[in-house]
C-alpha cells in the first residue's frame, strides 16, 4: 500500500512522514526540493520531485498510490485541490486525506479557499477525510522576532480566545485517518485543549523563556500594515486581518474533543509547546 504525502517539507507534512516511518511505513513524498527532503528523511521516504501546480508531475508521483495526504497552501487551494483530486481519481487513488481548516465552518477567508477545495474533492467522487484544525501553535513562532528584539507581542485579536493546536496532534490524527478506512467520509474538527487569548499565550511564552513580555493590542489597520510587509499577496493579508478580527469578536473560541476522540488522549498544551520552542524566542 503506497501512501503519498504532499507538504512533506512543511510543518504538519514532515510530522506525518515521521510518524509513518516510525510505524515502518515508507511513504512516497511529492516535493519541490529533493535535497531538502533527503536532508529531512534520508532514505526513509521515496522522494518524487514535483509541484502541486504541475499536473504532469502530480500524475507521475500518484501512479500506484493508494492514499493521498493533500496539503495545499494559499489562494490557489481551490484549483490545486481540484486538479489533484481529478488526477487521484484517474490514477485509482482510494482516498484523499485533506489538510483543511476549522475556518471552513465560519466561512472565513482561508476557510473559504478550503471549503471550495473540499467541494472539489467531494465532486471528484474519490473517498475523502477532511482534517479541520484550528490555529496552529506554531503560528506563534511569527512572534519570535519582536519578542527577541523588543520583548513585545502585538496583535489585533484583543481579548478574543483561540484553542491553539500542536502540529504533532494534527499529524497524529492525520496518520490515524490515513491508516484506517473507517475515517472515509469523515470530517475531523480539531482544537487544542483550551481557548487562550493572545495575551494568555504571550504570558505562557514569557514564563517558558523566563523573561517579561508586553502584550500590545493593535488596530486592524496596524495589523494589516505590519503583515503586508512580508505577505505573499493583498488577498493573503486581508484573509489574516479578517481572521484576527473574528478571533477578537470571540467567533473562534470554541473547544472541541476531536483529538481526544481520535487518539484517546488529551491534546498537547501550549505550555508544552512553549517549553519545546524556547530556543526560538531567545537571542
Ligand atoms: N497555520 C494555521 O493556523 C492553519 C490552521 C488551519 C489550517 N491550516 C492549513 O494548513 C496548511 C499548511 O500546513 P503547514 O503549516 O504544515 O504547511 P507549511 O509548513 O506552510 O508548508 C507548506 C508545504 O507545502 C509545500 N508546497 C507549497 N507549495 C507547493 C507546491 N506548489 N507544490 C508542492 N509543494 C508545495 C511546501 O514545500 P516547500 O518546502 O517546497 O516550500 C511545504 O512542504 C494550509 O492549507 C493551511 O491553510 C493552517
Short descriptors:
seven-stranded parallel sheet; 283 residues; single chain; alpha/beta; two-stranded parallel sheet; Rossmann fold; 13 helices
How does this structure look, described?
By secondary structure, this protein is α/β, with parallel strands linked by helices. The chain has a domain at about 5-135 and about 165-190 and about 255-270: Rossmann fold (3-Layer(aba) Sandwich). Helices cover about 45% and strands about 15% of the residues. It is built from 13 helices and eleven strands. The strands form three sheets. Strands 3-2-1-4-5-6-9 form a seven-stranded parallel beta sheet, with helices on both faces. The chain has a two-stranded parallel ribbon with strand order 7-11. Helix 1 crosses helix 7 (about 165-180) and helix 8 packs across helix 12. The chain is globular, with a radius of gyration of 19 Å. It binds NADP nicotinamide-adenine-dinucleotide phosphate.
Q: State which percent range the strand residues make up.
A: 15-25%
* CATH-derived architecture of one domain: 3-Layer(aba) Sandwich
Q: Can you identify the CATH class of one domain?
A: Alpha Beta
Tell how many strands the DSSP assignment holds: 11
- Write the element-wise H/E pattern from the N-terminal end onward: EHEHEHEHEHEHEEHEEHEHHHHH
Largest beta sheet: what is the strand line-up? 3-2-1-4-5-6-9
Amino acid at each position: 500500500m503506497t501512501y503519498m504525502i504532499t507538504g512533506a517539507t512543511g510543518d504538519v507534512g514532515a510530522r506525518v512522514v515521521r510518524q509513518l516511518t516510525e510505524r515502518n511505513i515508507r511513504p512516497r513524498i511529492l516535493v519541490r526540493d529533493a535535497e531538502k527532503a533527503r536532508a529531512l528523511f534520508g532514505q526513509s521516504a521515496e522522494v518524487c520531485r514535483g509541484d502541486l501546480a504541475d499536473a504532469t508531475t502530480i500524475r507521475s508521483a500518484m501512479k500506484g498510490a493508494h492514499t493521498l495526504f493533500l496539503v495545499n497552501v494559499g489562494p490557489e487551494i481551490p484549483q490545486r485541490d481540484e486538479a489533484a483530486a481529478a488526477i487521484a481519481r484517474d490514477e485509482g487513488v482510494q482516498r484523499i486525506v485533506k489538510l483543511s481548516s476549522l475556518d471552513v465552518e465560519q466561512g472565513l477567508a482561508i476557510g473559504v479557499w478550503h471549503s471550495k477545495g473540499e467541494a472539489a474533492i467531494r465532486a471528484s467522487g474519490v473517498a475523502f477525510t477532511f482534517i479541520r484544525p484550528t490555529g496552529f501553535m506554531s503560528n506563534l513562532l511569527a512572534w519570535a522576532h519582536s519578542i527577541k528584539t523588543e520583548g513585545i507581542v502585538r496583535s489585533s485579536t484583543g481579548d478574543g480566545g483561540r484553542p491553539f493546536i500542536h502540529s504533532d496532534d494534527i499529524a497524529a490524527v492525520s496518520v490515524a485517518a490515513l491508516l484506517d478506512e473507517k475515517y472515509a467520509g469523515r470530517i475531523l474538527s480539531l482544537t487544542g485543549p483550551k481557548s487562550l487569548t493572545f495575551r494568555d499565550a504571550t504570558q505562557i511564552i514569557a514564563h517558558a523563556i523566563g523573561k517579561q513580555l508586553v502584550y500590545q493590542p493593535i488596530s486592524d489597520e496596524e495589523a494589516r500594515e505590519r503583515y503586508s510587509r512580508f505577505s505573499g499577496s493583498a488577498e493573503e493579508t486581508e484573509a489574516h486581518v479578517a481572521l484576527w478580527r473574528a478571533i477578537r469578536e470571540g467567533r473562534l473560541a470554541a473547544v472541541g474533543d476531536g483529538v481526544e476522540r481520535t487518539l484517546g488522549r488529551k491534546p498537547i498544551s501550549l505550555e508544552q509547546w512553549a517549553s519545546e520552542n524556547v530556543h526560538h524566542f531567545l537571542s
